[in-house]
Design a protein that fits this description.
With 134 residues, this protein is an all-alpha fold. It is built from 7 helices and no strands.
């Protein structure tokens, strides 16, 4: 009985590790695209940076979860994860249109800008995740 329960463990480990790699790649790339240094701001106790990056991460992870659940294989999952990364980077540049100094405002700890970016990223991620299952 226990062995039957563990039969899916190899697939779980492969997809879980794939998800972790996708998240690390996302954080590496996204934090280099944005002009502000999210991790330094977070280390300096800037809640605006933590909110913006954290919600952006959730906005990325939602489509990765959908990709894991619906992909035919790991390569398919990685391709859809890359698409999710591109969407999140596009969202960053789109939300800068009405708030051109977005990064400077987040670096200054302005919560409204952080919430705007974070929730826009989350909304785009939810749409992205839903679109992947059709």
């Amino acid at each position: 009985m226990i062995l039957q329960s563990l039969a899916g463990l190899p697939a779980f480990l492969v997809y879980f590790c794939t998800g972790i790699v996708a998240v690390l790649a996302y954080l590496f790339i996204y934090t280099r695209v944005t002009p502000h240094n999210e991790f330094q701001l977070i280390r300096d106790n800037d809640p605006a940076a933590a909110i913006a990056l954290g919600l952006s991460l959730v906005g990325f992870v939602l489509p990765v979860v959908s990709a894991i659940a619906h992909s035919a294989n790991v390569l398919d999952c990685l391709i859809w994860s890359a698409i999710a990364l591109i969407v999140q980077i596009a969202v960053y540049f789109i939300v800068k249109i009405p708030v051109p100094n977005l990064s400077a405002r987040i670096a200054a700890g302005e919560m409204a800008s952080a919430i705007w970016l974070g929730l826009s990223s989350l909304a785009a991620g939810a749409l992205n995740a839903a679109a992947m299952i059709t």
